[in-house]
Amino acid sequence: MTVDTIITSPLLSPCLQTANATLAQSLTLIDFLSSNASNPVTTDLQTQVAHHQKLLQAYLSKLRHQTRKAAYTARTTKAETAETRKQVDALLLQLQNLYYEQRHLLGEIAACEDYNHAFRELPLIELDEYLEYFPEHADMSEEEIMPRRIEYEAEERRRMEGERSELVKVKERLVQENARRKEEIKKVDERLEGWIDGLGTLEQELKKELE
């Protein structure tokens, strides 16, 4: 496995290509110098050496530029990756909190559903009977219809309590009227008894006079 197959990053591939070209140019310069080591130094030789050195400097300059650019991009990417990781960690924490809150709310809902509410013990009329009075409520859910049933029951009890109070008042008036009439009858009886006693006395006196 060669370096070319290992490094596939678009950021590092240009650096690798330039490094290979720089290495090749360095080897070319070394080979050229080695092959001409025994030859006298001429102007043409110096010109060729300068040309090879110029190419090598150009490759080195390009390699330094690409390396700095790659390093800067890598640092920027690393910083962005770290920031993104922080954001992801924050989102994961929020998600965990939401899951916790969801479990808590589901537990509360289950507890509310299982709670023995007082309204379940109320002596309400049967649902079928209620819907006979209010057929427009037939499509409502249990949560929607229960408050209406309770309110209806409360209204009925208030109405019945009002009727009971009126009946109590009527009863009290009848009791008072009955007592008054009994008193009047008693007085009439007393007058009748007095009148009857008077007749008896008168009858005795008449008998005495007739004798």
Distance between the termini: 171 Å
- Class by SSE composition: mainly alpha
Order of helices and strands: HHHHH
Instruction: Pick out the low-confidence regions.
Output: none
Instruction: Give the overall shape.
Output: rod-shaped
- The portion of residues assigned to helices is over 70%
Q: Roughly what is the average pLDDT, rounded to an integer?
A: 83
Count the strands?
0
- Tell me the number of helical segments per DSSP (H or I, 4 or more residues long): 5
Number of domains: 2
Rg from Cα: 59 Å
Biggest pleated-sheet summary:
none
Please indicate the percent range of residues in DSSP E strands (runs of 2 or more). Answer: under 5%
Topology diagram in text:
Elements: H1 3-6, H2 13-35, H3 43-114, H4 127-133, H5 142-210
Structure commentary:
The chain is mainly alpha-helical. The protein has two domains: 3-87; 119-210. 83% of the residues lie in helices and 0% in strands. The mean pLDDT is 83.
Short characterization:
Helices cover about 85% and strands about 0% of the residues. The protein is an all-alpha fold. InterPro entries: THO_Thoc5.
Keywords:
single chain, 211 residues, mainly alpha, rod-shaped, mRNA binding, coiled coil, THO complex subunit 5, nucleus, THO_Thoc5
